[in-house]
Amino acid sequence: MPDDISWVSCNRDSEVPPNAVHVDKEMFVIRGNYSGDTIPGKWVRNLHSGYVSHGGREIQLENFEVLCIPKDRYQWEKSRDGQPPSGAIEAGNTSGGEKLYVAQGKINGQKCIGKLHPSHKCAYFPWGTAEHRETKCKDANEREVVLSPRHPNHIMNLDLNDDPPPSYWEIYPNGCPDFPPNCRCERSFSCSGDELCTSGPAPRSQPPSRRPGPRPFYPSASVCPGSYPGLWSSMGAGAQSAFNTLTPQASNKAEACREEFYWVECKATNPPPPDAVKAEGEVYVIRQKYKGDLIPGKWPVRLKKGYISYGGREIELSSFEVLCIPRANYQWIEASRGKIPPGAVIGGKTANGETLYIARGRVNNEPCTGKVQPSHRCAYYPWRFREHKRENYTVLCFF
């Protein structure tokens, strides 16, 4: 590494070291260690925290390293599909040895710093408890520092839409690892690409002729005929369909990938699928699209109907997706007035891009699940034909 590029150990309350690389006066380029990876990310000083992204989630850090380079030694340039040009600044690596680079972009109009993952042909950003993905990039080359070809170095800047969904999906072009050969699977980005597997049935000979419908929200679901009746299972894999060559190191990680959480398409008359998240009694967490929103809600099994709320009304559903989290690896955390605890599970999204979370509460002493809408500073529950507003609620979160 050239002498005038350095990483300085800091904590969330440290003074900013000289020549720290920043995108505005309060956000600096960092890297931190998580789950065996060294991951570039952001230090937001006014929030007193560092952040990296991993496995579909935003990870909060107290200790990290800050990238320091004299201001006249780097610049930002465009690129795409995650491919850094020569002379790029190396910022980290995966546990499997792949190099990671620094990415800069905007999420919901706010500047953000994350990681470029070349084998995924994209970059990932930590923001709003989730990991966001994009493929159109701007890169930053060194101006004057001469770098060894053995150590390419690069800073990336992504040209993002203002409000990308938390993650995206793609169809497997070569079949679905770990599921029956006739299964038609869509990729979810709830896990990192290092957790892809190579085990399972032989690849399908032909990819589907077209991608079905609009992109589902985080995490996506996949129809697998022949498993549980009506069951939609998420592969939880973190790479796009272009990444067909899967590494041997990842061959035993399919279970770890799928076990985070997934959504199952059900009819209201079906029995609950395995691992369905229960709010209380026989009320389960669901989601469904309505008027452009993807809205979390409730499924009281005994009523053989699902319900979400929208525009002051309770909306009755005969089919929906059920949230499933293996091993009950979740908890309900109290919050109020639109606040979202760390590790909150993303339940949906409004048509204009606002993330919705899963709320639990009681209406007229009956258990309900609904949506937390942070910009409204409240939760909404469907009950008896109406939408009920509550300032105090509990939020579904991972342990």
Q: Radius of gyration, Cα only, in angstroms?
A: 22 Å
The gross shape turns out to be: elongated
The biggest beta sheet is recorded as: 8 strands, mixed
> Roughly what percent helix?
under 10%
The count of helical stretches stands at: 1
Mean pLDDT: 71
β-strand percent reads 35-45%
Number of strands: 29
Alpha carbon gap, first and last residue: 39 Å
Which regions are unreliable across 5 or more consecutive residues at pLDDT < 50?
138-259
Order of helices and strands: EEEEEEEEEEEEEEEHEEEEEEEEEEEEEE
Please provide a written account of the structure.
The chain is an all-beta fold and 399 residues long. It is 1% helix and 44% strand. It has one helix and 29 strands. The protein has one helix at 254-258, and strands at residues 6-11, 22-24, 27-34, 37-44, 49-54, 57-61, 63-68, 77-80, 90-93, 99-107, 110-117, 122-127, 130-134, 136-140, 155-158, 262-267, 278-280, 283-290, 293-300, 306-310, 313-317, 319-324, 330-336, 346-349, 355-363, 366-373, 378-383, 386-390, 392-398. The strands form five sheets. Strands 8, 9, 10, 11, 12, 13, 14 and 15 form an eight-stranded mixed beta sheet that branches. Strands 1, 2, 3, 4, 5, 6 and 7 form a seven-stranded antiparallel beta sheet that branches. Strands 23, 24, 25, 26, 27, 28 and 29 form a seven-stranded antiparallel beta sheet that branches. A hairpin with a 5-residue loop joins β24 and β25 (355-363). The radius of gyration is 22 Å and the shape is elongated. The two termini are 39 Å apart. 47% of the residues are buried. The model is unreliable at 138-259 (pLDDT under 50).
